[in-house]
Each structure stands twice: as structure tokens, then as C-alpha cells.
Design goal:
This protein is about 45% helix and about 30% strand. The chain is elongated and about 70 Å long.
């Protein structure tokens, strides 16, 4: 029996755009992958867009590499890609394409994130069905969404700490500026007193 579409969903208490930015950045994928197969992305990779390709180092029994093409992109709402084996063209054609898709919907309490594995266009969908790929994919996606939540919350805490630190720095700078202003005014006051003293010939102000 051929493999069919599988999905997993989770409400994450983080804004949709923040979650989208994480998923659309391949360098973040190893940090939230729940399958244990995603190992590393190329150095210097960042957020990608529709039609872009990004590589990924993988490991399932043996190390291998994939090249992924972004095939669906809606800012803040949808991000999907198709992977192909980074190797001889005939191997890539026989493996793909499977679609990995993330969808983000603002709901009460956060964002409903849905990850989907869609093998319906893959030439290997019958093999996936025979080996029970579906049974592995669903729990892996559930773990991925759990790790995505942990990563997003950690990043939110770091951003909050950075904002607090920046606020404290701003306060200190403001305080130092006020001290400088007070010092300057005090200095000007002394100069004014000396000027008045000189004008009256040292007799003081009447």
C-alpha cells in the first residue's frame, strides 16, 4: 500500500512570524529536528525564499547530503520544500519529490503550527508504505514541533534579556548625561559668580 499524507499540529505560545523566521532559516533546522537525521546546514546559510535551494548534511545509518528547493512560500504563514539526494541525477530522480510543509495560523494562546509530510508525488511512495515510513514520520514530526517550541521560547527569553540589558544601558547613559548637565550648570554658575565679583571690584553683588 502506498504511503499517504501525514501531519502533526501543535499550538505554540509564540507569534507566527517568529516561528516562520526560524523554519525559513535552514541553519536552524538541526536545532529543532525531531528525527535525529538532520545534522548540519552549510556555513553562512540564513533565511531563504521561494525557488531558493539549500543543502543539508544528514545521517540515517550512513551520512549523506540533501539539496532542498523551496516550493511554497507565504511570509509568516507557509513554508515548504522538496528534498533530493545530493548525488547522481538518476538517484535524485528516483528518490523525490516528497514535500515537507509548515503552516502557521494565529490562534488564541499562540500559533497553531502544522507540519506535513506529503509523499503523494514521490516515485518511492509504495516503498515508503511497505517499510512503514508513515509510522516513523508522525512521531518524528510531533517531536520536531515540541523542539521548535523549546527553541522559539529560548530565543524569546534571550531577546527579552537583551532588551532589558539595552534598557538598563539606556538608563545609565541617560543618568550620566543628566550628571554631566548638572555638572556643566554648576560650573557655569561658578563662572557667573566670578564675573559678577570682577564687575563689582571684589565688593560683591548689591
Amino acid at each position: 500500500m502506498a504511503a499517504t499524507i501525514k501531519s502533526a499540529s501543535r499550538v505554540i505560545p509564540v507569534p507566527a512570524q517568529r516561528l516562520f523566521d526560524i523554519v525559513a532559516d535552514p541553519s536552524q533546522h538541526p536545532a529543532f529536528d525531531g528525527s535525529g537525521t538532520v545534522k548540519a546546514s552549510p556555513a553562512g546559510s540564513g533565511k531563504v525564499g521561494l525557488g531558493d535551494e539549500f543543502g543539508m548534511s544528514m545521517h540515517m545509518y550512513i551520512p549523506y547530503k540533501m539539496v532542498n528547493e523551496v516550493v511554497e512560500y507565504e511570509e509568516g504563514r507557509r513554508f515548504a520544500w522538496t528534498p533530493k539526494l545530493d548525488g547522481p541525477a538518476f538517484m535524485a530522480r528516483n528518490v523525490g519529490p516528497v514535500i515537507w510543509r509548515y503552516e502557521f495560523e494565529e490562534v488564541e494562546g499562540g500559533t497553531l503550527v502544522t507540519e506535513t509530510w506529503d509523499p503523494t508525488r514521490s516515485k518511492q511512495r509504495r516503498i515508503y508504505g511497505l517499510v512503514g515510513m508513515e509510522r516513523q514520520v508522525t512521531p518524528n514530526m510531533e517531536r520536531t514541533l515540541e523542539r521548535l517550541e523549546q527553541l522559539a521560547l529560548e530565543k524569546a527569553k534571550l531577546d527579552e534579556a537583551a532588551c532589558e540589558a539595552l534598557g538598563e544601558l539606556t538608563k545609565l547613559r541617560s543618568l550620566n548625561l543628566q550628571r554631566c548637565e548638572v555638572a556643566d550648570l554648576s560650573f557655569l554658575g561658578k563662572l557667573t559668580s566670578l564675573d559678577e565679583l570682577a564687575i563689582t571690584g571684589g565688593k560683591g553683588v548689591a
